[in-house]
């Protein structure tokens, strides 16, 4: 069975038998507009999706940015652990009710016990909601919350009574098909990978000026990005290619160890070849009354590259051949030959392994930078060893002071908005944090002592 993996923009590896082939698409290609680096961030609203009387603003050129993030991060233990670690550092000791009090020239948070507010918080399962909000924030930087109005609101405009968590992954902004303003007024919830099979839920956007206007509405809360009017662009998105690289490296090593493999062929194909294939797929899709997606071309690439890998995979293929058409083009005052090029690679296992490790380390550092978490807070130092206690403490303090206030604001915002409406604006919910002390600043008798066989915990 052939396995084809995309490792970066227009670069693939294919495994067939005991052969590992490296594929590269050369030349300029319009397919690059679909890649992460070339995603157009400002024109999504210009190509809305028609859905039952609404125009849905896609999240990404193919309405699949949340899916891209999920597929890349969930398959990568380092990136996934980094995201979870940020949630743990944000939540830390858990949520509590507080209000700001002035101590001289400083504003401080003072914890308060407010039975009525606490009773309401418990009724909405607020701790679980905040955890879910935090996950959505770090993955997508947007939070969707369902706001339910009090029952008397059926007769007259009332105030909200309860709120519920809604997965941001399933939400899209929309407006009515006949709305010439094209400004989002609704949120549509559903499975966006099954447009023709799934029933969608439609709710109006929550209006802060009229909080009880609708029986059910959606409070949309996001971290705004420059020039982006509808959706935010999560920090993690720009590092997806690096994440995929760190995910694919273990697969390549596993294949090498299992089958004593090395890359034996470097296959180059011209971008024009795939442009022609894209045009054929687009024409076929149009004739069949379907919408063309870039996944169709990716599936075709996988099929063609897999067959070529099989063709190059050993003596059992004696007598088979690969037919390659070349094209002459006049570019920049010179004639250029465009065609497939297959080059055998000299086997240098040691150099190959070292280069793979170096690329993996480079990709890992890039992912760590994108995650915004110091290596010591992930329990691994920059060189793979544990950092000193003082370095971990300094990294922790800097992270908690600089990297948590903004996420806390957005994660707790839906709940605090409701508290303000229902109980006044004195109180808020936040996350309680403590600053660990250095061991040398603690009385010896109170210091933490690691357990030993003679002195177990």
The coarse overall form would be flat
Order of strands across the main sheet: 1-2-3-14-17
Total helix count? 10
Write down how many β-strands occur, each being a DSSP E stretch of 2 or more residues: 18
Over the alpha carbons, how many angstroms does the gyration radius reach? 27 Å
Percent of residues in helices: 25-40%
Strand content: 15-25%
Through-space gap between termini? 52 Å
Uncertain parts:
30-37, 315-321
- Broad structural category: alpha+beta
What's the main sheet like?
5 strands, mixed
Layout: helices, strands, pairs:
Blueprint: E1 3-8, E2 11-16, E3 19-26, E4 49-51, E5 54-56, H1 65-74, H2 77-91, E6 95-103, E7 106-111, H3 115-123, H4 126-140, E8 142-149, E9 160-166, E10 171-176, E11 186-189, E12 201-204, E13 216-222, H5 240-259, E14 263-270, H6 271-287, H7 294-311, E15 327-331, E16 334-338, E17 341-344, H8 349-371, H9 389-402, H10 405-423, E18 428-431
Parallel strand pairs: 3-14
Antiparallel strand pairs: 1-2, 2-3, 4-5, 5-10, 6-7, 6-18, 8-9, 8-13, 10-11, 11-12, 14-17, 15-16
Helix pairs in contact: 1-5, 2-4, 2-8, 4-10, 5-8, 6-7
Give a verbal description of the structure:
The structure is a single chain. This protein is of the alpha+beta class and 457 residues long. It has a domain at 3-36 and 237-378. The chain has ten helices and 18 strands. It has helices spanning 65-74, 77-91, 115-123, 126-140, 240-259, 271-287, 294-311, 349-371, 389-402, 405-423; strands at residues 3-8, 11-16, 19-26, 49-51, 54-56, 95-103, 106-111, 142-149, 160-166, 171-176, 186-189, 201-204, 216-222, 263-270, 327-331, 334-338, 341-344, 428-431. The longest helix is centred in the last third of the chain and has 23 residues, at 349-371. Residues 30-37 and 315-321 have low confidence and may be disordered.
């Amino acid at each position: 069975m052939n396995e084809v993996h995309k490792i970066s923009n227009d670069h693939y590896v294919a495994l067939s038998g005991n052969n590992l082939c490296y594929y590269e698409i050369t030349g300029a290609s319009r397919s690059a507009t679909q890649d992460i680096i070339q995603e157009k961030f400002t024109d999504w609203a210009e190509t809305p999706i028609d859905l039952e009387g609404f125009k849905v603003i896609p999240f990404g050129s193919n309405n699949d940015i949340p899916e891209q993030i999920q597929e890349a991060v969930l398959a990568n233990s380092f990136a996934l652990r980094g995201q979870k670690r940020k949630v743990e550092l944000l939540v830390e000791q858990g949520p509590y009710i507080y209000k700001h009090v002035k101590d001289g020239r400083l504003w401080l948070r003072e914890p308060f016990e407010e039975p009525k507010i606490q009773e309401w918080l418990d009724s909405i399962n607020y701790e679980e909601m905040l955890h879910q909000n935090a996950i959505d924030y770090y993955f997508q930087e947007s939070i969707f919350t369902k706001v339910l109005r009090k029952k008397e609101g059926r007769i007259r405009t009332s105030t909200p009574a309860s709120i519920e968590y809604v997965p941001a992954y399933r939400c899209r902004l929309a407006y009515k098909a006949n709305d010439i303003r094209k400004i989002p007024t609704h949120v549509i919830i559903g499975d966006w990978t099954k447009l023709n099979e799934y029933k969608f839920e439609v709710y109006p956007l929550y209006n802060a000026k009229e909080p009880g206007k609708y029986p059910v509405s959606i409070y949309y809360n996001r971290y705004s990005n420059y020039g982006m009017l509808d959706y935010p662009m999560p920090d993690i998105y720009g590092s997806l290619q690096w994440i995929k690289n760190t995910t694919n490296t273990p697969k390549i090593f596993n294949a090498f160890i299992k089958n004593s493999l090395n890359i034996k062929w470097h296959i180059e194909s011209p971008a024009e070849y795939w442009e022609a294939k894209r045009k054929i797929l687009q024409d076929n899709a149009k004739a069949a009354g379907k919408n063309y997606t870039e996944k169709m071309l990716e599936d075709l690439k996988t099929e063609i590259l897999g067959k070529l890998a099989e063709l190059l995979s050993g003596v059992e293929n004696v007598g088979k051949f690969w037919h390659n058409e070349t094209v002459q083009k006049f570019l920049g005052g010179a004639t250029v030959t465009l065609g497939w090029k297959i080059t055998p690679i000299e086997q240098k296992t040691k150099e190959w392994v070292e280069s793979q490790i170096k690329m993996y380390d480079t990709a890992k550092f890039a992912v760590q930078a994108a995650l915004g978490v110091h290596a010591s807070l992930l329990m691994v130092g920059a060189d793979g060893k544990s950092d000193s206690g003082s370095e971990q403490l300094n990294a922790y303090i800097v992270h908690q002071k600089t990297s948590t206030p903004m996420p806390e604001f957005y994660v707790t915002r839906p709940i605090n908005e409701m508290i303000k409406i229902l109980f006044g604006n004195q109180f808020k919910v936040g996350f309680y944090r403590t600053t660990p002390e250095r061991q040398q600043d603690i009385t010896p008798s109170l210091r933490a002592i690691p357990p030993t066989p003679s002195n177990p915990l």
